[in-house]
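Inverse folding, one chain.
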């Protein structure tokens, strides 16, 4: 009886295992397919059929690899024969999954090979279940003596089949396979194989039935922990990438919309027949829905309601574009926003993004779009929503619209399973967009359909306002009646939500009923207060590179330019809307115009009473510079004084003043079209230079893009001009770096002024008071900080992060955000910069290693066998050379290094180390190295030359050029080096190259024909490097002037040469200055290489912008014939780059 009871328990355990397998599989169709195969003979019949099908297709796959696995299962089956006689279906989870998995994997070779490989791996770890010689047990097989072990292996095998099934039972498994198999499923198979191997050691030991569940639970727990850990790792990598690409998340912009007091209902749109049909799952019509409406019609609020609806249906990627970020919004940034927002509520997409993202996705629209399409391919259905497509720059708008249209068409053409990727866009009816979305697009026009929603919005708003203000009933009735008459969206029946909102704002700020009555009767919608204070504030809001906070505006008003040494006291809270009128709003502490159309009206030069934007920019620049010159920004302040000023709110303006002053000055100088009195600005900058300068500036600092013509400013205030240039370079460096804010930060020493160092001390003081846990005093200090520095005083510590400006409301959110700045995946090569800097994801690290540090087997022939000590010595010497330690290198350099036959110190090592010597910046090191290995170094040393340009070391560069001239000069070396110098915009090295070229002896001998110089100067790369940089064109013009012609040179040859140069300029930079010089030198403005080719005027006419316009005017002025039409197809007449440049 006891034996019978044990057998019934074991049989019940087998049945429970099968039930769990079916439940966990969660796929009835696949389970039924598995149960059709119950014996090994039926499995062989199934695999034969699979082989036949493969033979009719793309060829046979390696199914023979599963034979060891099947053989182990054949040996295992007799151990549970006693149970299969009573329940034959017990063997179905053993044989059935093999046939079903192979059959379903046939649609993709990679999946099929992965399934076969997994079975082969487990087959190698399953024990040999055959009975060994000399061992006898009752029944058949080794396991019959202990049915508990038979049950354990049964659970292991069906768990293996379950994991293998889950890896590709997803309808889109083929798309997900490359992202999930290598890092997740294959490793889970390895975990199962490892446990099976350990379970094999239990055979022959006493193994109670109760331990089966423990072992099985331990294996399941190991799989769950691994899967959860992998999911966490994927999410962390995803959020690091997301934060690096789209730090100002779309979620925040959407939250502002959702919680805005001004919103219009989109019920009419959601009930529209076209929208309901388009959003239906089985819709086969046009995949693009375009919501069109005029300015201020409430498209963004309607899009927000649409987004809520779409997210309740399926995965939705969204992007809300704003005119406020117009200059920084690119097609790539919008594609990134769509990609990352698609991850909302899914577990697949983080893995896809983290394993697909690479460096190209940051800068290449094609790569970013491919990433988005990979993500879309891994969700069965998706919506894409882009609001405000017309809020972008025109060029970026066209690129984005074309990519979105292409994505829609691409998925539509893929077939039935991916037809439902649909696009929703909102914008005005722009001609450029109409030409792109000219077919297969459903259009919904807002028009007057928004009027009922605006009526409802006004009604709800007035009810809330009445409850706050407590008007008398007759007053409420009069206001409602007046609003009915005045509300523009109702009056004109066009649904203009913006004007209705501005009307309500105009009465909300009024206190007395008589003023409200007057405003409703006579007021002008969209008007602003014209007081001096209001005009100042509106001007600052319009010209500030970053949005200003209320507190910053308050401190700007406290600065008296007539008494620059005194900072006025700030009291009370500033009501910006009350001062300026209903044209501004305060959103999350920042003041902004309610719509970009309002901003354009305020600064319209042709409108009476408008505000001058250049004057406002000058005023803001003067106040910021004056603020930095005051005593509270002295570098000699003690920590106690800094702490006291911090709590007093003195440093409210510090971020804007310290970080933005050079940009504001730059914008002002670029906005003036004629010489004006710059004495006030120059004098303020001179004081800043005198009081806050950290280190001496270069004598001839040039600012290439500071102004179209800032000659007067540069000549009158050279120190101020140089200071602005250095400050701009420093700020650009900060934006592109990963510098961290701390008192010990060394990067602040790169600032030409002492202000960055003080900013670090200020932030340190703010953090100290924020994190102070002292009862009473700590809470009081935090309240003061929030009063002066806003409700989000916890700033991100990374200098380039936007949240270093906007901050967080508490420490927990800051810490949660900052962990995504980590780059935990470091390069394994110690000398590589990424061994410290790291990468955002494991894939990016692996891609870097494969590209930059390839393994010798893949990239190079096998290394020669070298003694370990010689190899180490060479590596140490390379490091010492790079450090510029010439005395130590001279002592340690072995004699064999000077030999040409030594396998360690070969020519490759010597050439590579010569570049390191140049990069060290040590002229003695370069001279020592060049003298030691002169014979081994090549005559053409491009890399060392370029290294000297890169580190901007004039002395080393002059030495190298002299060395080249002594060892067989080549004009191409000089011109290529000069091109590099122009690209780096380092004018000292440019002058070195230019002077060296002009001073060559063969260019000075009368009668010589320096063909090599003329040939080298006719170079597309050199001309292109001067792209719209006036200062870079000067040395090129000097070189063209220095060209000498031999006695045999004819005027026709000179005209042909300069005409070809003119044609190259027209095709590349379209510089009027270069063209004018060439025409005066003899170029023909009507030159054509042949009748089928274009003239310079034709190329100029095909360009856009003011450079093309200026070149066209120049050519016409010097006699170009505009009546001759060029060919419709422009053949390239540019001289092809040399092979060495391409390499």
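Residues assigned per position:
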């Amino acid at each position: 009886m006891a034996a019978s009871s044990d057998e019934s328990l074991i049989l019940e355990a087998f049945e429970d295992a099968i039930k769990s397998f079916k439940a966990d599989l969660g796929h009835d169709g696949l389970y039924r397919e598995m149960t059709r195969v119950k014996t090994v003979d039926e499995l062989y019949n199934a695999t034969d059929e699979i082989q036949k099908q493969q033979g009719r297709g793309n060829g046979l796959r390696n199914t023979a690899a599963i034979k060891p696995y099947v053989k182990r299962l054949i040996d295992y089956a007799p151990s549970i024969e006693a149970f299969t006689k009573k329940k034959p279906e017990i063997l179905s989870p053993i044989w059935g999954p093999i046939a079903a998995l192979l059959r379903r994997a046939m649609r993709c070779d990679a999946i099929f090979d992965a399934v076969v490989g997994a079975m082969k791996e487990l087959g190698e770890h399953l024990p040999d279940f055959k009975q060994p010689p000399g061992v006898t047990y009752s029944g058949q097989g080794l396991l019959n003596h202990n049915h508990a072990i038979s049950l354990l292996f049964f659970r292991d095998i069906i768990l293996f089949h379950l994991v293998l099934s889950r890896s590709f039972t997803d309808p889109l498994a083929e798309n997900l396979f490359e992202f999930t198999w290598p890092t997740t499923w294959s490793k889970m198979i390895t975990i199962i194989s490892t446990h099976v191997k350990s379970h094999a050691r239990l055979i022959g030991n006493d193994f109670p039935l109760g331990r089966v569940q423990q072992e099985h639970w331990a294996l399941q727990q190991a799989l769950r922990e691994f899967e959860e850990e992998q999911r966490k790792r994927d999410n962390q990598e995803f959020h690091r990438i997301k934060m690096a690409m789209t730090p100002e998340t779309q979620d925040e912009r959407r939250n502002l919309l959702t919680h805005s007091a001004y919103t219009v209902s989109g019920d009419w749109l959601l009930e529209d027949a076209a929208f309901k049909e388009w959003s239906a799952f089985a819709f086969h019509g046009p995949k693009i829905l375009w919501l069109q409406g005029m300015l201020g019609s409430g498209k963004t609020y309607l899009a927000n309601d649409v987004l809520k609806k779409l997210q309740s249906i399926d995965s939705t990627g969204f992007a809300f574009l704003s005119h406020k970020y117009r200059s920084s919004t690119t097609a790539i940034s919008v594609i990134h926003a769509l990609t990352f927002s698609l991850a909302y509520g899914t577990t697949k997409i983080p893995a896809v993004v983290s394993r697909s993202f690479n460096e190209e996705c940051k800068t290449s629209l094609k790569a970013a779009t491919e990433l988005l399409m990979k993500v879309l391919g891994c969700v069965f259905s998706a919506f894409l929503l882009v609001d405000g497509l017309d809020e972008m720059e025109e060029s970026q708008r066209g690129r984005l619209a074309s990519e979105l249209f292409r994505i829609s068409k691409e998925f539509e053409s893929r077939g039935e399973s991916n037809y439902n990727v649909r696009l929703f866009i909102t914008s005005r009816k722009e001609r450029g967009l109409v030409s792109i979305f000219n077919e297969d697009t459903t259009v919904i026009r807002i028009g007057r359909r928004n009027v009922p929603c605006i009526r409802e919005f006004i009604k709800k708003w007035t009810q809330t306002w009445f409850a706050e203000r407590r008007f008398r009933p007759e007053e409420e009735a009069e206001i409602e009646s007046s609003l009915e008459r005045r509300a523009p969206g109702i009056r004109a029946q066009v649904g203009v939500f913006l004007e209705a909102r501005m009307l309500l704002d105009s009465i909300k700020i009024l206190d007395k009923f008589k003023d409200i009555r007057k405003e409703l009767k006579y007021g002008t919608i969209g008007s602003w207060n014209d007081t001096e204070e209001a005009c100042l504030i509106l001007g600052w809001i319009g010209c500030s590179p970053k949005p200003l906070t209320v507190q910053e505006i308050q401190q700007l008003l406290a600065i008296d330019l007539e008494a620059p040494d005194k900072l006025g006291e700030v009291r009370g809270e500033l009501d910006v809307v009350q001062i300026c009128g209903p044209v501004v709003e305060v959103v999350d502490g920042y003041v902004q115009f309610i719509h970009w159309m309002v901003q354009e009206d305020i600064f319209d030069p042709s409108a009476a009473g408008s505000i001058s934007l250049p004057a406002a920019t000058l005023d803001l620049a003067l106040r910021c510079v004056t603020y930095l010159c005051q005593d509270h920004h002295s570098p000699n302040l003690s920590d106690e004084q800094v702490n006291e000023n911090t709590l007093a709110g003195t440093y409210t303006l510090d971020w804007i003043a310290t970080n933005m002053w050079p940009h504001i000055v730059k914008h002002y100088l670029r906005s003036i079209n004629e010489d004006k009195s710059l004495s006030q600005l120059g004098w303020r900058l001179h004081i800043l230079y005198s009081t806050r300068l950290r280190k001496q500036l270069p004598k001839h600092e040039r600012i290439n893009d500071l102004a179209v013509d800032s000659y007067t400013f540069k000549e009158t205030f050279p120190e101020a001009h140089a200071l602005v240039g250095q400050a701009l370079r420093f700020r650009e460096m900060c934006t592109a770096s990963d510098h961290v804010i701390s008192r010990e930060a060394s990067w602040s020493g790169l600032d030409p002024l002492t202000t960055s160092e003080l900013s670090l001390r200020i932030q340190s003081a703010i953090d100290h008071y924020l994190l102070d846990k002292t009862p009473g005093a700590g809470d009081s200090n935090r309240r003061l900080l929030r009063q002066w520095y806003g409700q989000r005083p916890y700033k991100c510590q990374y200098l380039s992060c936007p949240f270093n400006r906007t901050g967080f409301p508490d420490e927990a959110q800051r810490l949660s955000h900052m962990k995504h700045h980590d780059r935990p995946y470091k390069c394994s090569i110690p000398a590589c910069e990424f061994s410290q800097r790291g990468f955002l994801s494991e894939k990016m690290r692996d891609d870097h290693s494969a590209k930059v540090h390839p393994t010798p087997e893949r990239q190079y022939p096998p290394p020669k066998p070298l003694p370990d000590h010689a190899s180490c010595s060479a590596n140490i010497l390379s490091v010492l050379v790079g450090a510029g330690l010439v005395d130590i290198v001279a002592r340690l350099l072995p004699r064999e290094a000077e030999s040409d036959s030594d396998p360690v110190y070969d020519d490759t090592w010597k050439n590579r180390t010569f570049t390191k010597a140049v990069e060290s910046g040590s002229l003695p090191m370069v001279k020592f190295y060049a003298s030691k290995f002169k014979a081994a170094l090549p005559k053409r040393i491009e890399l060392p030359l370029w290294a000297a340009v890169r580190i901007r070391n004039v002395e080393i560069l002059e030495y190298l050029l002299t060395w080249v001239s002594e060892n067989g000069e080549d004009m191409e070396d000089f011109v290529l080096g000069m091109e590099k110098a122009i690209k780096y915009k380092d004018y000292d090295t440019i002058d070195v190259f230019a002077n060296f070229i002009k001073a060559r002896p063969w260019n000075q001998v009368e009668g010589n024909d320096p063909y090599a110089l003329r040939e080298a100067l006719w170079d597309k790369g050199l001309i292109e490097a001067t792209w719209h940089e006036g200062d870079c064109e000067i040395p090129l013009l000097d070189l063209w002037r220095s060209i000498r012609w031999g006695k045999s040179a004819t005027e026709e040859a000179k005209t042909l040469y300069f005409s070809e140069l003119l044609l190259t300029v027209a095709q590349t930079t379209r510089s009027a200055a270069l063209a004018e010089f060439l025409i005066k030198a003899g170029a023909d403005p009507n030159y054509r290489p042949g009748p089928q080719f274009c003239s310079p005027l034709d190329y100029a006419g095909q360009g856009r912008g003011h450079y093309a316009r200026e070149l066209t005017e120049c050519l016409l002025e010097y006699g170009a014939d505009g009546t001759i039409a060029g060919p419709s197809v422009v053949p390239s007449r540019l001289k092809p780059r040399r092979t060495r440049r391409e390499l």
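Strands lie at 288-292, 315-320, 382-387, 421-427, 441-445, 548-549, 584-587, 590-593. The first strand starts at residue 288 and ends at 292.
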